[in-house]
From TrEMBL:
This is Crotonobetainyl-CoA:carnitine CoA-transferase CaiB-like acyl-CoA transferase. InterPro entries: CoA-transferase_III_domain (IPR050483), CoA-Trfase_fam_III (IPR003673), CoA-Trfase_III_dom3_sf (IPR044855), CoA-Trfase_III_dom_1_sf (IPR023606). Signal peptide: none annotated. Keywords: Transferase. The lineage of its organism: Bacteria, Pseudomonadati, Pseudomonadota, Alphaproteobacteria, Hyphomicrobiales. It comes from the Bacteria.
């Protein structure tokens, strides 16, 4: 075995971010991920992009980010012939992943019970916005909506400005991690019991779980704990926690730090009267303003050197392009690339988990729509004439590399 999940086959019906990120992580570890897309258009993320720009002129960076190490087959899921083929594939598959709205795949004959009927060992992982029942079951479950509903957005931003969402799809990505967590747990359980099971993951539950620290504080410290957001950008932390300006326009984040150490490093003894836990919380906006006035006396690198020299918890605030060039990021080898048949060289973030005996790797680029359909069906014993008939009927599409 060269990779941890070699030999595990995943039928991946998922689209957009949550499900595709989960299956990409499993693919990085060696699982054979068969991405089952819609005939014609494929995954919805193929038609969505950032900055109104396309990689190589035609490929979505959103799709390229979450779909490496997969083979694609594009099918008409409403076709009964296609249904029979997928159920035949399921007899030897290990995992099914989907993140359509609750009930959509089941109505087409691809629910958990349908797969379990042909393979009792199947693990069926279903992702949704709010779960598979309850008052919000029919609502659209999108990342920013979940951030707002769970409380993350209200916790973020300065107190004199509107709340702001995180600048990344945190709810979707946490949902993906929960999918992986559930799938790996179910695979381990199956080794002991021989039985598969259904896994339900939803974005709201995942976001709530990852805000547990904030919930424990608010729910247990009394009603008066809940205060408006502050100038430091976090409602519960005391100064000097926050983002501070430098003389050259850069910014530095400062986390936990003995306040006395900070004002000594900044050569600002007049800040000493604030050095009390209650004062640093009650007057945190005032402290932020005064500390910010001091940090603006130094250039970014000088400020960092002073703070790090005193073991103050701090870091430079970088945009993504500069972060990709950070010496620690380079040292870790976290920016990798793959060759795509239409986008050319695609630079990506490498797998984040390192394993000494079964390392993760990028072995396949994100696929074209249905690119591997013929080879997948041939592997499962579908005759060439039947494959041709599926294509002729529009029940399968193949985009050539």
């Amino acid at each position: 075995m060269t990779k941890a999940l070699e030999g595990v086959t995943i039928l991946d019906f998922s689209h957009l971010l949550q499900g595709p990120f989960a299956t990409q992580l499993l693919g990085d570890m060696g699982a054979d991920v068969i991405k089952i897309e819609r005939a014609g258009a494929g995954d919805m993320f193929r038609g969505m992009t950032f900055f109104a720009k396309w990689v190589g002129g035609s490929q979505s960076p959103n799709f390229l980010a979450w779909n490496r190490n997969k083979r694609s087959i594009a099918l008409n899921l409403k076709s009964r012939k296609v249904h029979a083929i997928i159920m035949a594939m399921a007899r030897t598959a290990d995992v099914v992943v989907q993140n359509f709205r609750p009930g959509v795949l089941a109505r087409l004959g691809y629910g958990y019970e349908d797969f379990r009927a042909v393979n009792p060992r199947i693990i069926y992982c279903s992702g949704s916005g709010y779960g598979e029942d309850g008052p919000y079951v029919d609502r659209p479950g999108q990342d920013m909506l979940i951030q707002g509903l769970a409380g993350l957005i209200a916790n973020t931003g300065r107190g004199d400005q509107p709340p702001v969402p995180a600048g990344a799809g945190l709810a979707d990505q946490i949902g993906a991690m929960n999918m992986v967590y559930g799938i790996l747990s179910a695979l381990y359980a199956r080794e002991r019991t021989g039985r598969g099971q259904k896994i339900e993951v939803n974005l709201l539950a995942g976001m709530l779980a990852h805000l547990n620290q904030e919930y424990v504080a608010v729910l247990n410290l009394g009603e008066d704990f809940v205060r408006p957001r502050s100038g430091i950008g976090h409602p519960g932390m005391q100064a000097p926690f926050g983002i501070y300006e430098a003389a050259d326009g850069g910014h530095v984040s400062i986390a936990m730090s003995p306040f006395r150490t900070l004002y000594e490093v900044l050569e600002a003894p007049h800040l000493a009267p604030y050095d009390d836990l209650a004062t640093l919380f009650d007057k945190r906006d005032e402290v932020w303003e005064k500390v910010n006035a001091e940090t603006r006396r130094f250039g970014t690198q000088d400020l960092l050197a002073r703070l790090l020299g005193a073991d103050i918890w701090c870091a430079e605030v970088k945009d993504i392009r500069r972060a990709a060039e950070d010496p620690q990021v380079i040292h870790m080898g976290m920016i990798a690339s793959y060759e795509h048949p239409k986008a050319g060289t695609v630079r990506v973030v490498a797998p984040a988990v390192r394993m000494s005996e079964t390392p993760a790797s990028i072995d396949r680029p994100a696929p074209l729509v249905g690119q591997h359909g013929r080879e997948i069906l041939a592997h499962y014993g579908v005759p060439a004439a039947e494959i041709e008939a599926l294509e002729a009927a529009g029940d399968m599409t193949v985009e050539e590399a």
